[in-house]
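This part of the workshop introduces the protein records we will be handling. To make this concrete, we reproduce a full record directly below.
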Amino acid sequence: MAWNHIFWNDEFIVTNKDNYEDYLAGRVFGIIQYEIYFAMGDKYEWPNFGHNIWNFKLKHIFLEILEFVKKGVRNGPSGGKNSPRIKSIIIANDSKPHISIVMFDEKEQPILEIPESLDDIQFFSDISHMV
């Protein structure tokens, strides 16, 4: 059984579960949900449900996280230089939170993907990915 791991905002997250992508994304989502609770500043609109219960208004953010986890997850006994670092910040945009995510390699160089079609570029800017 392989150990799969990522670094998310310098937090090492690891699992040996078979559904490792969903599990790691779920763990990260719990962390992000907590950060959104503080970033948005409205505890009635964005309550803090903790790590086990999700706010389904944040499904779009979970899907972003899942894609980054799929790209960034590595396996092996150690997460030292084997896992890229993924950094994120929460952007409060009116009453809707956005997450800005950048993945770095072991030399702390940003790993960016450039969309190929105009539709993808529009979507790319809408979900607030930036360096």
In short: The first helix runs from residue 20 to 40. The CA atoms of residues 108 and 120 lie 26 Å apart. Residues 121-131 have pLDDT under 50 and may be disordered.
